[in-house]
Design brief:
The chain is of the alpha/beta class and 517 residues long. The chain has four domains: 120 residues, Glutaredoxin; 117 residues, 3-Layer(aba) Sandwich (Glutaredoxin); 130 residues, Glutaredoxin; 117 residues, 3-Layer(aba) Sandwich (Pathogenesis-related Protein p14a), CATH 3.40.33.10. The strands form eight sheets. It has a six-stranded mixed β-sheet with strand order 10-11-14-12-15-16, with helices on both faces. The chain has a five-stranded mixed β-sheet with strand order 17-19-18-22-23. A four-stranded mixed β-sheet has the order 5-4-8-9. α2 packs across α4 and α12 crosses α14. The longest helix is centred in the last third of the chain and has 17 residues. It is elongated.
Length: 517
């Protein structure tokens, strides 16, 4: 598990947010009595000569709210007039007399009072976010509706309770969705802004029903944070107005989201735009991020909307003109738009995205999205949702190949038969098996030059050709064709927990695409 945030300076004061100081006690007996008298958990860290538990930001913030004690493996306590080695007690047998962390319940009344509630060997405890998650789970198991942290922030554990509280108080509701591997860990500086909101922390694996709701679709069943606006009247009241998936979460992006959601645009950190293609590409590789390139000309310049700014902080961003030139490997100087990677743009201005997030993926280092400006503008020629939504959905696309991401985007931004009807078939979790099946069938259709249904091995399939001026136009036209066919439309408009989409080019102006569910 890793923490979604920046390590916090626990001893620093900024504004009104003050974190409790994380102070490791050194006397086990005294720490035990302190926890008992104050009705808190006792966190015991056993360390060896060269091995000691070092908490991450999330754990440090939570540990400070309890009583943490660090003692060597050979520490003893007197019992019956005789010294007894503490770690040899049966209560700590799961630690196998090795360095690690144990949690003793001196807070919750009942049969488990004074019992060890969790014991983690050092490697497990050291995994980012693990100890924080253990402490959070203990609170949930004991029915705590609100779990305080070391900053004095109160986190609800039940969505409906938090929603009702935010609605009655007319406040913004911040939703943190955590997984076993990733957990949102605010730092001291963020605490000031968070204090103004109602906060709820949810477990991903326990929130399937909530996240399948159309209003929560942008979470895509992934960890991250979002803001539901129950404060401002208007068309966005009660809607998820901002969200950042874990893979794009940064401290600057979180600050931007909180400031923009509260209507304090001037406080939102500005996005850093680089100027050199090769330098930006090296930086994206170095940081394991996606590289977003805005190719502009005087009449068409990418101006990100407010909803995009928190997401853009998670990219390495580069701004170029259509005339910008660079030397090639062969020697001659060429315009960037003439590079092989930029062919799908067809010399248009717009956005290009490279993926450097995961070296194990076949698309690592490839262009995985292109978006000419006209498809983010006021009239792209298809029944699609607003410009802001099209831009937001583009930036939220999960890591995948160019063809898969383009068709997923087209599904997500296209309207159904009703003015506000959503095509929900791509709102679930991308499934590699279904993606591969969609790819195989699209390749087969391309080779035969005719539409082909391979059969609903995965519970359903849609397939068709789509003419278009470029890959984005081809994807949008494919959705238009599916929308006109009742059987295809029926599968496209339904929510599927797992899905696969892909498309293949059969010529410079023709594509074949498939969806599998």
């Amino acid at each position: 598990m890793r923490s979604l945030g920046i390590p916090c300076a626990l001893f620093l004061m900024m504004g009104t947010a003050v974190a409790a100081e994380l102070s490791w006690r050194e006397d086990y007996g005294a720490a035990y009595r302190e926890a008992q008298e104050s009705n808190r958990l006792l966190i015991v860290s056993f360390y060896g000569p060269e091995t000691r538990y070092e908490p991450d930001a999330a754990a440090a913030a939570m540990l400070a709210a309890h009583v943490p004690v660090a003692i060597p493996l050979d520490a003893t306590i007197e019992q019956g007039g005789e010294p007894v080695t503490i770690i040899e007690s049966a209560a700590f047998r799961n630690l196998e007399q090795q360095p690690g962390v144990a949690v003793i319940n001196l807070k919750y009344e009942g049969p488990k009072m004074r019992h060890v509630m969790a014991a983690l060997l050092l490697d497990e405890a050291q995994a980012p976010g693990t100890v924080a998650q253990v402490l959070d789970d203990i609170a949930r198991r004991h029915g705590e509706d609100v779990v305080p942290d070391a900053f004095g922030l109160k986190w609800y554990t039940d969505y409906q309770t938090a929603y009702n509280r935010a609605k009655s108080a007319k406040k913004l509701l911040l939703i943190a969705v955590d997984s076993a591997e990733e957990r949102f860990a605010p730092d001291l500086e963020l605490a000031d802004a968070l204090r103004e909101m109602v906060l709820v922390r949810l477990r991903l694996e326990e929130s399937s029903e909530l996240l399948s709701h159309v209003g929560m679709r942008n979470f895509r069943f992934s960890p991250g944070i979002g803001i539901l606006d129950l404060k401002h009247e208007g068309p966005n009241h009660g809607r998820l107005t901002y969200n950042i998936p874990a893979r794009l979460l940064t401290k600057e992006g979180t600050h931007a989201m909180l400031a923009l959601a509260a209507g304090r645009r001037e406080e939102a950190p500005a996005v850093t735009w680089h100027d050199d293609y090769f330098e930006a590409r090296r930086l994206a590789e170095q940081e394991g991020k996606m590289l977003l390139i805005a190719v502009d000309e005087p009449g068409e310049r990418f101006q990100p909307r407010d909803r995009s700014i928190p997401l853009l902080h998670g990219y390495v961003c580069l701004r170029q003109t259509t005339e910008r030139q660079y030397p090639t490997r062969q020697g001659p100087v060429r315009r960037l738009l003439q590079f092989v990677d930029f062919r799908p743009m067809r010399e248009n201005t717009g956005l290009v995205v490279y993926d450097f997030t995961d070296e194990s993926k076949p698309y690592h280092g490839d262009v995985v999205s292109v978006m000419p400006h006209k498809y983010l503008g006021p009239n792209p020629g298809n029944r699609v949702f607003s410009e802001a939504e099209r831009e937001n959905e583009f930036l939220l696309l999960e890591p995948e190949t160019l063809t898969r991401r383009t068709l997923m985007w087209a599904i997500r931004v296209s309207k159904g038969h009703g003015e506000n009807t959503r095509l929900r078939s791509a709102d679930g979790v991308p499934c590699e098996a279904r993606m591969a099946g969609a790819e195989r069938n699209s390749v087969l259709m391309t080779s035969r030059g005719v539409g082909h249904h391979a059969g609903g091995l995965m519970g359903g399939e849609i397939a068709s050709p789509g003419p278009g001026r470029d890959i984005v136009d081809g994807a949008l036209n494919m959705v238009r064709i599916w929308r006109g066919s009742p059987p295809h439309y029926g599968m496209m408009v339904r929510f599927h927990r797992r899905f696969g989409y892909d498309m293949q080019a059969s010529s410079s102006s023709h594509w074949y695409g498939t969806g599998r569910f």
